[in-house]
Amino acid sequence: MASKRVATTSAYRCTECGWTSAKWVGRCGECQQWGTVVEAATVTGIAAPSVTALAPSRAARPITEIDTRETPRRTTGVGEFDRVLGGGLVPGAAILLSGEPGVGKSTLLLDVAARTAAAGRRVLYVSAEESLGQVRLRAERTGALHDDLYLASETDLATVLGHVDQTRPDLLVVDSVQTVSSGLVDGAAGHPSQVREVASTLIRIAKERDLPLILVGHVTKDGQVAGPRILEHLVDVVCHFEGDRQTSLRFVRALKNRFGATDEVGCFQQTQHGIAEVPDPSALFLGHGSREPGTCVTVALEGRRALPVEVQALTLPGSGPNPRRVVSGVDGARVAMILAVLEKRAGIRVSDQDVYVSTVGGVRLVEPAADLAIALAVASAVTGRPNPAQTVAIGELSLAGEVRAVTQHEQRRGEAARLGYRSIVDTGSTDLRGALRDLARLHPVERGDEPTF
């Protein structure tokens, strides 16, 4: 009896999204990831195996019968980090913290681990990048020493699991997931298949034992989390730690949170003693109060926080046919548009001026609510007339010169009033010329001088 002929062909499949190709390519044509296309043998000529249904161990329940009591949370002792997490650590939650090298991820998590240990809970901190001595030196410098904080320097996943079984911690920190490897998967540490295996195993252990897990993730040059995209899908919370190396200000943003809101921001400051939280950062982005021409204050939103930010502008007569436009902390294209609106709609000539625009404190303004403050700061710099004291400007500028409403306007006004600002120039001015006239009325006219706006 002749046996049935079975034909075997070779295909290439992406380990991230499942995209297939007849030949090997270095970059997936679907998800655009590099190094994820591997050879996969396929068998043709026989019927594909079918999946047999199994009886579930637990029957499906109506959604109305599901217990809606809030999952208990454990505070970390770092209020700003708890704010981003939604109130604290949820048992069994997997948290991914990413950020640029040197921004302070390890320092922040060492502080979180020490404060959690001080609250009477055992913590296991696994460092796969540094030796135990290096971690101890940082802990001494930042005051993060505690007897219930256990350190381990391991890069093998099986050994890490052994430490978990031996220590039985209430919080597990792994720094970082890209430097731990498993002997069950081929490839070096950091390969997408290794990262996926390590993360899925640690998350499974965390779910089984109700053990909160914090993973540190490296980022690429584009600012994305290194490794497979599925890593961000596996975890419950994705936080990004960001900050400019030229300033001490640091922000933790929640990009994904299954247990809370994703628009919360934690504010920290890098000091010689580690990372210090800043519960009220309103004064960090304001100048010294001098009434010089070319300054204006706006109220920006960082997550749910309303923060006053001072915008400074300087103008000089242009020295060439193409005037310079130098910005810091604001969008250069947005500033160019605002300058065009100033000249066309308000009659303030800036086309022959070198214009420099910056923010105080290194904060970056990316929302259009700062348009009006930038315009008023530039107008003040051109005319040499300082804006009125204790005045903020909030509004988006259109190309027609209109002042448009912005989101969370009442919250911004409330923060300005809390900080003592007496006058607000906003959508009540209807257009840019109206805003300039409002400023002129607010400005005290001395010795009979008329406003020049």
Automatic annotation (TrEMBL):
InterPro entries: AAA+_ATPase, DNA_repair_RadA, P-loop_NTPase, RecA_ATP-bd, Ribosomal_Su5_D2-typ_SF, Ribsml_uS5_D2-typ_fold_subgr, Rubredoxin_2. A motif (RadA KNRFG motif) lies at residues 256-260. SMART domains: AAA. ATP binds at residues 99-106. The keyword Cytoplasm does not apply. Residues 70-219 form the RecA family profile domain. It comes from the Bacteria. Residues 354-453 are annotated as: Lon-protease-like. Keywords: ATP-binding, DNA damage, DNA repair, DNA-binding, Hydrolase, Metal-binding, Nucleotide-binding, Stress response, Zinc, Zinc-finger. Plays a role in repairing double-strand DNA breaks, probably involving stabilizing or processing branched DNA or blocked replication forks. DNA-dependent ATPase involved in processing of recombination intermediates, plays a role in repairing DNA breaks. Stimulates the branch migration of RecA-mediated strand transfer reactions, allowing the 3' invading strand to extend heteroduplex DNA faster. Binds ssDNA in the presence of ADP but not other nucleotides, has ATPase activity that is stimulated by ssDNA and various branched DNA structures, but inhibited by SSB. Does not have RecA's homology-searching function. Belongs to the RecA family. RadA subfamily. The middle region has homology to RecA with ATPase motifs including the RadA KNRFG motif, while the C-terminus is homologous to Lon protease. This is DNA repair protein RadA. It comes from Microbacterium flavum. The lineage of its organism: Bacteria, Bacillati, Actinomycetota, Actinomycetes, Micrococcales.
